[in-house]
Amino acid sequence: MSKKYGSFEVVKNISFSVKKGTIFGLLGPNGAGKSTTIKILTCQSPPTSGVAYIGGFNAAVDAAEIKKRIGVVFESQNLYEELSVFENLNFFRQLYGAPAEKITEVLEVVGVKGNQKDKIKTLSKGMKQKIMIARALINDPDILFLDEPGSGLDPHSAREIRQMILGLKGRGKTILITTHNMEEADFLCDCLAIIHKGSIIAMDAPGNLKKKYGEDVLRIKTVTGDIYESPLNTKSSSDIFKKLSDDNQIFLVHSKEATIEDVFIRLTGERLTDES
Ligand SMILES: Nc1ncnc2c1ncn2[C@@H]1O[C@H](COP(=O)(O)OP(=O)(O)OP(=O)(O)O)[C@@H](O)[C@H]1O
């Protein structure tokens, strides 16, 4: 599918499918087209061309059917700040006609206990993100869309959210996340699509992407503090090792595994930093 705003093609002929019960990631820098893709898939904005099927329903036609089966966590935290945790969740529970027990159940799933009376405005960003995820679970969706779930969170909260996302997969949910965080993408995703300027430029399991496009490196630190790096298991790395070893220069040797960042740099010639 493709999406244009005026003459600006934001999503360019992308095509992918997500296996039931897995986590699929769209990884790319700001402006790559990730949120636009989520908007198409969650029936908020139709594609200019092409078609998206969610659980067998056409996103541009069957919005009512799809909305019963999906939960969405938007990038911006759009909870009612002046209302309590309970009031926020109860509003959505009523919208979906879910039973009253659902609120305690979804709060348990996201690991929140005893905060039901707290106003949203008094909560930390990490706690708000948990409430956002709890809200997306109110209708017991089969499919979850999480737009930048770890963005702007402190490392501890980001780790908690990642574990929770894995837990949701364990409960059988199919999850699509967008992220510009490579560690998050690597840790969570069964399949990862790297999106750059609206196009998917690579798609595979993170481990396969690293094998295919990354390079493990031999890293040697000398007694004088110099660092030598060379692709692992090559003649050049064994030559460097031998020379430094003969000269008694080696202080530390280790191998460095390829990362998703290496893959991104290799494919685009650009860095994908957390600040991007
Ligand atoms: N309604 C719109 N009208 C015009 N241009 C838009 C609109 N929405 C998004 N864009 C542009 O489309 C491009 C892709 O935006 P999109 O939000 O999908 O990117 P993204 O990868 O999700 O990045 P971010 O994390 O910053 O949201 C950007 O250049 C953005 O400015």
From TrEMBL:
It comes from the Archaea. One of its GO terms (molecular function) is ATP binding. The keyword Acetylation does not apply. InterPro entries: AAA+_ATPase (IPR003593), ABC_transporter-like_ATP-bd (IPR003439), ABC_transporter-like_CS (IPR017871), ABC_transporter_ATP-binding (IPR050763), P-loop_NTPase (IPR027417). Signal peptide: none annotated. Residues 1-222 form the ABC transporter domain. Keywords: ATP-binding, Nucleotide-binding, Transport. It holds the Pfam family ABC_tran. Transmembrane segments: none annotated. PANTHER family: ABC TRANSPORTER ATP-BINDING PROTEIN, ABC TRANSPORTER, ATP-BINDING PROTEIN. This is ABC transporter ATP-binding protein. It comes from Methanosarcina horonobensis HB-1 = JCM 15518.
